[in-house]
Amino acid sequence: MSIAQRLSVLRETLRERGLDAFLVSSSENRRYLSGFTGTAGYLLVSQEQAVLATDFRYVEQAGRQAPRYRVERVTGKLDWFPKVAAELGVKRIGFESQHLTFGAHTSFQKAIRDADRSDGLALVETSDTLDLLRASKYAEELRLLARAVKITDEAFVEVGSTVQVGVTEREVAWRLEKGLRERGAEAVAFDIIVGAGPNGALPHHLAGDTVIGVGEPVVIDMGARYQGYCADLTRTIVIGEPDETFRRVYGTVLRAQLAAEEGVEPGMTGGEVDAISRDVIEEAGYGKSFGHSLGHGVGLAVHELPHVGPNASDILANGMIFTIEPGIYLPDWGGVRIEDVVVLEKGRARVMSKAPKLEYDQ
Question: In terms of Cα–Cα distance, which of 256, 290, 253 is closest to 273?
């Protein structure tokens, strides 16, 4: 879908909500709607015009990347906002309440007061307006995500097979990052997680100086960022012979993941999909050891809509891409998490992640 088509969809949403324009502050939504990749700036989109306000550093870049936008060079002050709003003839302007900070909102309100606007210029709170538009991916987005996933799979396969007893978590994380970048990743999508032994019981443990031991579970969570789009992959490995706890826990997590991947359908809520995996884990006696959501959307942000967790009300639809990542975490022992990126297509989940998994029948 082109930038022009995305703007058209947003403008239809503005009509439905009775808004004259929309103020975009989040970097992902700014890129999604304009193509601009700079790290500073706002979009102000009305029915007739689209303005990209940014500072001196990015003016030329904005002109090249966002040809459908009028570029407004601004300073750190927000006096440009009421001025441009007046030029566009807009008053009711929606903003991203989940992204705009309290401090920034206060500054925008002050700019409106200082401009002595008595014509009703107002910021109108909206939630997830653009995030919902981004939840379903278009063909080009799917291509970029598939490339990010492939890079991640290949780096894991190469590095995972070389992990040995005696290396540190930090060493493994560095090899993985190097592998991602050598295959074309522009960056890591997030700080790589390598949790060896008891550290694996911490779902977001950052790689440190812990040395990997024999028979310990090692949780590896990694992802490439490719042309803005993020992958997210988790595999749990073991060096040497695993103990019975590992076999039992790993088998349970794998069954929980496969059940959700096979059972998810368009029209289900994120909460209903979460329950598929959670029921498997609870029946195995580990319900209290699975404390996070089953998954999340991925795209320009590594965590975005749809929500896939307990009581999540987001309705899943064809074209949505999200993770399925059940886990079990046992203090003083470690953890097991297995994560794939999936896309809903033709009423089924197609698993995009191809990195191999261990197999333990339970």
Answer: 256
Residue 257 CA: distances (Å) to CA of 146, 223, 249, 250: 20, 19, 12, 11
Q: What is the pLDDT of residues 109-155, one digit of tens each?
A: 999 998 876 678 999 999 888 999 999 999 999 999 999 999 999 99
- Confidence category of residue 362, pLDDT binned at 50, 70, 90: very low
Contact 234, 339 (CB under 8 A): yes
Angstrom distance (rounded) from CA 34 to CA 310? 34
Identify residue 173 by its one-letter amino acid code.
Answer: A
Q: Where are the alpha helices (DSSP H) in 115-243?
A: 129-135, 139-160, 169-182
CA 250 to CA 338: how far, in whole Å?
A: 9
| Beta-carbon contacts of residue 166 (< 8 Å; ≥ 6 apart) | 211, 212
Q: What are phi and psi of 230, to 5 degrees?
A: -110, 145
- Would you state the structure tokens that stand for residue 73, as one six-digit string? 């060079």
Q: Residue 272: which of 319, 307, 247 has the closest Cα?
A: 307
- State the chain's mean pLDDT as an integer: 95
Q: What is the pLDDT of residues 298-337, one digit of tens each?
A: 999 999 999 999 999 999 999 999 999 999 999 999 999 9
* CA 14 – CA 105 distance, rounded (Å): 20
